[in-house]
Amino acid sequence: MAQTIIDTANHIAGYAAKAARVKVIAAYPITPQTTIVEKIAEFVENGEMDSEYIRVESEHSAMVACIGAAAAGVRTFTATSAHGLALMHEALHWASGSRLPIVMAVVNRAMGAPWSIWPDFSDSLSQRDTGWIQFYCADNQEVFDTIIQAYKLCEDERVYLPAMICLEGFILSHTYMPVKIPDQNEIDDFLPPYKAGWILDVNRPFSHSNLVSPEWYMEFRYMIQEAMENAKRLIQQIDKEYGKRFGFEYGGLVEKYKCEDADLILLTMGTMGSEAKIAVNNLRKEGLKVGSARIRVYRPFPVEEMRRLAEQAKMFATIDRHISFGMEGFLATEVKASLAGEKEPPLVAGFIAGLGGRDVTSETIVKIAKKSLKWMKIGKVEKETEWVDLRD
Amino acid sequence: MLKEIRIHGRGGQGSVTAAELLAHAAFLEGKWVQAFPYFGAERRGAPVKAFARISDEPILAHSQIYNPDYVIMLDPVIYKFVDITEGLKKNGILILNTTKKPEEIGLECWRIATVDATGIALELNLLVAGLPVVNTAIVGAFAKATGEIELTSVMKAIKETWSGAAGDKNARAAELAYERLIKGW
Predict the structure, then answer these.
(1) Contact partners, residue A228, CB within 8 Å, separation at least 6
(2) Which of A246, A273, A296 finishes a domain?
(3) How many CB pairs below 8 A link A and B?
């Protein structure tokens, strides 16, 4: 029977790995991720999970162990944060290039130096081009649902790619909220056992991902690009199906809120998308036509959705919990790229906020919206990238 | 209605657990809830904060709480180092772990409720690593002071968190604090 429990998003990620009947977990602890793998270790130890828990000496080894396990044809899971993810970087390419549907929770934490344990998206966004699908969650329920959805997606033969499920450190990882855990039989029905595209078998030895000459390498890259395009379509289908079965649906690639008649649309990722809804409600009380579009999937990027939103909105404001030094926030860049070539595209103003765990309240978002509306009125973005509440 | 709660204590006193128990109790009554620590690097003995939200509707906020409806003080002397009333709403309530009576506190802008949670813990021999456990008692006191949650829900939340004798003893602490809370209004 479905039950509603109350727990932190990290523990909920553990519950999701259990519900997905993950067979191998290889992980190395790092703040603020640690309580995910602690919870899973507890499940394995007390027999609630029939899985192999591999303790490793680094995050690089954790990913490589997951790659080995996935190549042997079993469902795998890991979790990490910040520097742990950076240490995995090389192996991330091996996972996607080998087309292994590993699912990993990334508990977002800002990169050092200087040291920070608090959240921003600089860790996961630095892995943008590794060929991993990237989801960003806005609450604990979405963390659970997205992990289950991700296995369904990644293990589809039209995709066969790994995915990161990103959740902001502390803001979600250590926050207690109620979460509905569906009946295990219903999850099993939604998510059947993993059928691998290829399997390493000692009785039938062969080499995989071996040296590929220039005559063929590009074709392997093209297949990943195709898989990403397929994922775009499938994410929406899977989200709908999940919603029908379990009652939670997130708009597929983009969660839109009051965008239908909006002049200004606030574009965010993660929990800022939830906070933005409060801002939208307050702005609407003042008669201002503002909507919120939370980019739930950053790779593949929802280019078409951006174009559709642009048909009617006059202004976009991107709020990035990230900075690509020497340029702007990635969200700003991606949104502008998506709109390039459109007839009369909306103005795009980029805002940088919440780096290293700086709190972003709905009041902050209202302030961002009002500045954007001012620029919309004069038809000109006066500052290409604005750092919000920056100290002198 | 959304109600926001801030808890002040010291690392190791169970401020986060108190926030979770509040949320858990309200959750048992069908409310939407959230509980979270101040996102700091916790150290034993250092001043810490925890937060909780209770609402009739889904909670969209993920930011910290700056204007709480209620403030709980777990540590009897922490007000000397920390401004525990910062941002507290005008009609807000302070729930303090102290042997003093509300009128002895000297804060007239808010409603004050006091309870000797440390005394209750010592009386029940409710100790962890030699220190009195005050967080379960204070949650009982919160129920009485604010009326936001029922004592029975608090006791149930405690027993769901700790099974057996530990659950019973902590639930008893909540019950005693509920009975002994002194309202200054």
Answers:
(1) A131, A133, A161, A299, A300
(2) A246
(3) 59
